[in-house]
Design brief:
The structure holds two protein chains of two kinds. Chain A is α/β, with parallel strands linked by helices. Chain A is 29% helix and 28% strand. Chain A has six helices and ten strands; from the N terminus they run E-E-E-H-E-E-H-E-H-H-H-E-H-E-E-E. By secondary structure, chain B is an alpha+beta fold. Chain B folds into two domains: 2-42 and 223-353, no CATH class; 58-205, no CATH class. Chain B has 13 helices and ten strands. In chain B, helix 2 runs antiparallel to helix 12 and helix 9 runs parallel beside helix 12. Chain B is elongated. The chains are: A alpha/beta, B alpha+beta. At the A-B interface, helix 1, helix 2 and helix 3 of A face helix 1, helix 10 and helix 13 of B.
Chain lengths: 207, 357
């Protein structure tokens, strides 16, 4: 489903990824592990099309990302992303934040997902009116609303306590069981309990 | 609508943009209006009271012009001349007021000044403009080195006159040591004045005769005021517009993270630009209208401010208002949409957190 072919990446003159090639098959819970600075977040950003690699090719469902004509629609319909710091838009309510990401024909999912994640009573509140754990659940709801084929999560529990971390991992694992490919970059080894595949990175290379 | 929510949810930022645009637009309006008003007042003063003006040849300023008042008798004998009067314009300290306009005129022009109190001046007397009169409770006033009895108070639509004094031309002649600054002639044929202009010019080779329309067009003082106000208002305009553009640009740059999130969620560049366009439009137009209302309010109050003696008067033309609106919108949109467009072409994750190594 995802094929990475000879991908390298530079920030200025500093190389952070070195000629990576690997494949991720559909379904499953993939754990990108590595210490801080190992390049796992950069790789996750490239896999999710949020960052263009300096060289190499990324194929999703057999199609080169460089050749996708409407990358915006591709992101919205096929990919969900959960950031470490939730990145909700502060002037939109919980419902509106999710609706912003939702495709027209997926808007009916919003209430269902809010209920499933136990945050339906927060739908009219604004991000600064809810807790960190609740915000991250809203971010997860936003990533799930379009029923994407792949969810990418970068340190999704980095700003959460252990109780909320377990809730978020449980929700990601459930999405994975329902057929969504989940790719998580983290240095939290707790994820190993959920992972079906682990890709370990060190200094920009796969171990 | 996302644009309105963005504006409402960030009231401080919205207020900052609103205030910046309002102040910039007001500065542009007030500077250009006041200079237009100064020219308007003086040209109205000359244009409304005659078709032809006679000044001293080679003297470009009415303040320094000296024309023989005896010429009036010869002019009055010409065919098609309805009336003529002489006038001296000058400026001098009046009582405790450091400077005010002094208008010495022949008696046949006194009726131009509508008396609200008292009677027209005789020798050694003056009438005060309503604005100036507010500053004097006495029955007489010092002008130059002479004391004049205040015989009445008059009102005028022209701010310069409302803040000045009127006396008979003989007294003004002694004060400023001249016969007349200019003579104004009203004809029976206001649309065909060329022949009368030629006839008057033949009466005295020391004078310059023009239609008042041409005089106003060519008057050097107006050109100086126009040019300097053009420079000042252009500078104020440019600074104001640059201020608007830079405020918009700063606000947009501070929202790069938000644009990155939207791009990461699959929102198109067009979606971001469209929303920003409406935000800028709402903000600019509302700030412009607020600035327009405030400026009109200030301009309406200016003639009544005692300290200004009615000398500062503003005229805001429709063309200026439209031009300022167009320029404001252009610069605000330029300041917001260009950085937004550049930002929207950047990889989303770089916008969100400037790299994710």
């Amino acid at each position: 489903m995802i094929k990475v072919s000879h991908v390298s990446h530079f920030y200025g003159e500093e190389q952070v990824l070195f000629d990576l090639s690997f494949e991720i098959k559909s379904g499953g819970f993939i754990f990108l592990s590595g210490e801080s600075g190992s390049g796992k977040s950069t790789l996750l950003c490239i896999l999710s099309t949020l960052l263009k690699p300096s060289s190499g090719e990324l194929l999703i469902d057999g199609e080169s990302v460089d050749k996708i004509k409407n990358l915006d629609y591709f992101r919205q319909s096929k990919v969900g992303f959960v950031f470490q710091f939730h990145y909700l838009i502060n002037y939109l309510s919980v419902y509106e934040n999710i609706a912003l990401a939702a495709l027209e024909d997926k808007k009916h999912n919003i209430q269902i997902i809010l209920k499933k994640l136990g945050i339906s009573e927060l739908s009219t509140r604004y991000p600064n009116e809810i807790s960190g754990g609740q915000r991250q659940r809203v971010a997860l709801a936003r990533a799930l609303v379009n029923e994407p084929k792949i969810i990418f999560a970068d340190e999704p529990t980095g700003s959460l306590d252990s109780k909320n971390s377990t809730i978020v991992y449980g929700l990601l694992a459930e999405a994975s069981k329902n057929g969504t490919t989940v790719v998580v970059a983290s240095h939290d080894m707790q994820i190993e309990n959920y992972a079906t595949k682990i890709i370990r990175l060190k200094d920009g290379q796969i171990l | 609508m996302i644009s309105l929510k963005a504006l409402r949810k960030n009231p401080f930022k919205s207020l900052l943009i609103f205030s910046s645009i309002t102040i910039a637009v007001m500065a542009i309006f007030l500077i250009s209006s006041v200079s237009q008003g100064v020219i308007g007042m003086y040209s109205k003063m000359i244009k409304t009271d005659g078709d032809i003006i006679i000044t001293q040849k080679g003297i470009s300023d009415t303040f320094f012009s000296n024309v023989d008042i005896g010429l009036i008798q010869k002019i009055d004998k010409l065919k098609s001349v309805a009336s003529s009067y002489g006038m001296i314009v000058g400026a001098s300290p009046i009582g405790h007021i450091p400077i005010a306009g002094i208008y010495g005129t022949t008696a046949n022009h006194f009726s131009h000044y509508k008396l609200s109190k008292g009677e027209y001046p005789k020798d050694g007397e003056v009438i005060l403009g309503a604005n100036l009169a507010k500053q004097f409770a006495t029955r007489s006033v010092n002008i130059g080195n002479k004391r004049f009895k205040i015989s009445g108070i008059f009102s005028s639509e022209i701010g310069f006159e409302e803040g000045g004094v009127v006396m008979n031309i003989e007294d003004a002649g002694r004060l400023f040591n001249r016969s007349a600054s200019f003579i104004l002639v009203t004809t029976d044929l206001p649309n065909n004045t060329d022949s009368i202009v030629k006839e008057i010019a033949l009466l005295d080779d020391e004078v310059e005769v023009k239609t008042t329309q041409n005089f106003v067009k060519e008057y050097n003082q107006f050109k100086i005021i126009e040019n300097s106000s053009l420079v000042i208002s252009t500078l104020a305009f440019a600074m104001g517009l640059m201020g608007i553009a830079s405020v918009m640009s700063m606000i947009v740059n501070s929202r790069k993270e938000e644009f990155g999130i939207m791009r990461a969620l699959g929102k198109s560049r067009f979606f971001i630009i469209k929303n920003l366009f409406f935000e800028t439009l709402i903000m600019s137009v509302s700030a412009y209208l607020f600035a327009l209302l405030l400026s009109l309010g200030i301009l309406a109050m200016l003639p009544h401010v005692e300290m200004l003696q009615g000398y500062v008067n503003g005229t805001l033309s429709l063309s200026t208002a439209i031009y300022v609106l167009a320029s404001t919108l252009f610069m605000a949109l330029l300041g917001s949409l260009v950085p937004a467009w550049i930002a929207s072409k950047t990889d989303p994750i770089l916008l969100i957190n400037q790299g994710c190594a």
